[in-house]
Amino acid sequence: SLCEENSSEPLLTIDFHSSSIPGTSIAAYTQRFKLRGSFSGETLLVSLIMLLKYSFTISHPVTYYNVHRLMITSAMLSAKMREDRFFDNRYYSFLGGIKLSEMNKLELRFCSVLGWDLWIDDEDYETLARLMRRLVKELAEVEVSSNNDCVGEDVSAQNEVALPEFGARFWAEHLRPWKCGLESNLARRAQRMEQSDRIFLNRIRERSRQFYLRRATGL
């Protein structure tokens, strides 16, 4: 749903954008992470927050052109921050289907854009975790309901209709409001950090001024 909302975005020539939409679907890409990446549930949730934080900081939405590279980079960084054991960049480049040199470049780009501020708010994480638990529960209920309604009919065909409708509704009612709240929190944090930087710089300037005056006056 996030990429669908930004499907009309133009192709931009920045590091995370592919020249064309990758052939691997987001669902298949996520499944590859699950099977081969050894990511914990916590790490995957943190990686989603990191991805959205990058998108907010650089003021460019997540699209079908950049989501794959953003996913592997944010997942790799989250694993390095959260997991006791993690793979090296060579393996993550294999997992993401990109060259090692590009993986290294994307990692540096991601961290540089965030100013190496890889902090995640506990409340944002806990709220997302609750929503994911609710999503899994309600998704199972939708599948059971679809199966019960399809006695003697094509269950898979019914699910192909019901599940996307449920996903779009859950995104609109729960995940999009959470994303808006996350962006508000990120904006407030950026303002606080900017104020702190100004205070710090003013202190440095004042110390430099005092040092210069002492040198100049001989006091």
From TrEMBL:
Q: Which Pfam families match?
A: Cyclin
Give one GO term, molecular function aspect: protein kinase binding
Keywords, ordered alphabetically: Cyclin
Q: Which InterPro entries would you find in this protein's record?
A: Cyclin-like_sf (IPR036915), Cyclin_PHO80-like (IPR013922)
- This chain's protein is named Putative G1 cyclin CycE3
